[in-house]
Amino acid sequence: MSNILELKNVSFDYFLNGETALRALDDISLTIKKGEYIALIGSNGSGKSTLARLLNAILVPTSGEVWVDGLLTSREEHRWEIRRRVGMVFQNPDNQIVATTVEEDVAFGLENLGIDSSQISRRVTEALERVGLSSFRHHAPHLLSGGQKQRLAIAGIIAMRPRCLVLDEPTAMLDPRGRREVLDTIQRMNRQEGVTVVHITHFMEETLEADRIVTMDRGKIVQNGKPEEIFNGETDLYQLGLEIPVLLRLNRILRSEGLDIPANILNLNDLVNILC
Ligand SMILES: Nc1ncnc2c1ncn2[C@@H]1O[C@H](COP(=O)(O)OP(=O)(O)OP(=O)(O)O)[C@@H](O)[C@H]1O
Ligand SMILES: [Mg+2]
After folding, report:
1. How much is the pTM?
2. Any ligand 1 atom below 6 A from CB of 45
3. Does any ligand 1 atom lie closer than 6 A to the CB of residue 49?
């Protein structure tokens, strides 16, 4: 499988008052393959959002290189195409709504791409179907629930047919049901449509179904591996300001009490099946 995203020795400094540099990312190298689902975790201020903004050329590195599908983000002539290929979804769904009906909202980005109207209509239909909002097509976005609004934001992005979705805490403002709806949508895009996903989250449970977890700490990548490796590994996650998911904590306790359960169970149903 080829790489869709590649960071080579990337550092990024924010300049406060134009002078004092704050190093938000420090010599990061990372490759992400086409079709992978990456969960990006780390405590507040560890650099996750900065990394996300580098992936679709909202920011460019202070040093090092970010490659997207063979295009270099620091080359201005590549940026437009990079932003089309890498769609971003942010935390607050209200800030991402731009139109007065659901269908106009999804169409907005397509109109900006200069796509003709019959094609726009087809893509809007398709995108709303994918996120399960077809019956809301003529509704006013501000009347949707939080989870529905966030799925609308995702529809607006996927209508542009990106190859990669970067989601920066997309479920942070949602209730459990809204979170589930959004997670299912993201997973479906990844599994069925082959869209590469970079999902930033503080909810450890949300990382268990990722192909790979990347952990950041103070501007550096400190872990990079499968969920079972990250959560059963040597690194002290609490030290990194992170938690072990409840399911895995429970599994550890049961094992320490002598129950014969595999350590790498990542799914509640699997645990229940073994126990019963
Ligand atoms: N626009 C900015 N100007 C100056 N410093 C910034 C700016 N944005 C972020 N920073 C600083 O860069 C560092 C990394 O911030 P970033 O937002 O990337 O972290 P994060 O991992 O996304 O945190 P959180 O979990 O709180 O969202 C922090 O020290 C932060 O204060
Ligand atoms: Mg952030």
Report:
1. 0.93
2. yes
3. yes
Q: Is the dihedral of CA 166, 168, 172, 174 positive or negative?
A: negative
- d(Cα 94, Cα 107) in Å, to the nearest integer? 17
Predicted confidence at residue 19, as pLDDT, reads: 81
What does the pLDDT look like over 183-192, one tens digit per residue? 999 999 999 9
Looking up tokens 């999804």 gives 106
| Residue identifier of the C-alpha nearest atom 26 of ligand 1 | 44
Question: Where in the chain do CATH 3.40.50.300 domains reside?
Answer: 3-244
DSSP code string of 214-253: EEEETTEEEEEE-HHHHHHSSS-TGGGT----HHHHHHHH
We find that the CATH architecture of domain 3-244 is: 3-Layer(aba) Sandwich (3.40)
Q: Convert the pLDDT of each residue in 1-11 to its tens digit.
A: 699 999 999 99
The residues, ordered by sequence, that sit 6+ positions from 16 with a Cβ below 8 Å of its Cβ are: 22
Strand partners, 37: 197
79 residue type, one letter = R
Q: Tens digits of per-residue pLDDT, 55-77?
A: 999 999 999 999 999 999 999 99
For the residues 8-15, what does the mean pLDDT come to?
96
Atom of ligand 1 lying closest to residue 219 CA: 14
Atom of ligand 1 minimally distant from the CA of 15: 4
27 half-sphere exposure, CB direction, 13 A CA radius = 1
Q: Which of 6, 4, 12, 1 is nearest to 220 (CA)?
A: 12
What is the separation of C-alpha 22 from the centre of its chain, rounded to a whole number of angstroms? 25
Question: Which pLDDT score, from 0 to 100, does residue 1 have?
Answer: 63
Q: Where are the alpha helices (DSSP H) in 2-45?
A: none
